[in-house]
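#onboarding

Welcome to the new folks! Below is a worked example of what a typical request in this channel looks like: someone posts a single protein sequence, and someone else replies with the predicted structure as tokens. Don't worry about understanding the tokens yet, we'll cover that in week two.

Example request:
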Amino acid sequence: MSLAILLGMATINTVMAQEKKHNGKHGENSANEYMHHSSVDQLVKNFESPERDAYQQPDKVMEYLGDLKGKTVMDIGAGSGYFSVKLADKGANVIAADVDDEFQQYLVQRIANNNLKNIELRKIPYDDPSLKAGEADMVLIVNTYHHIENRPDYFAKVNKGLTSQGELVVIDFFKADGIPVGPPIGHKLSIDQVVSELKKAGFSSFEVVVDLLPYQYIIRAK
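Example response:
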């Protein structure tokens, strides 16, 4: 697996949005306002589509995350459970966290249909991951980081919720223009910005991967 620490890299490509529905005080042009243009039913259809599989390449992501058996993993912005279910299949004890009641209700049925015993649903507020101190071995946030407001404060709370050896994994879109699909460039965040914000949140060790997925970077922070 090829890894690169590119904290000052020029931005590359970007892609199809897999966003999370959000509410609260948001600017007219914010990523959250953008998401209000789609219903939950349409978002679920997009999240679980073959088109998403093609760019998200979940098998590669799961391999990259490593052995998760017995670990507690919070999936922030779990949405339809795209990654939550895959994490559970790998033996993780999953906390599927989302701000949206409709997504949580969808997941109730999905969990029942798949007879999954190791997924806990957690409705969270917009400004708090609702993690107990040292509760999670890993926090995964996919295509949702750019929706969080007051990110240094929010991810300081995430940091406190991790075990001493725990880690945060952020997967989000490269900040670039000229792509016919995906959120507007103003809703994307550069690697530099994410790393800077996570440093403010108390993280000090970063692994940045830019060549595993075609349109997304991965930041692993401790």
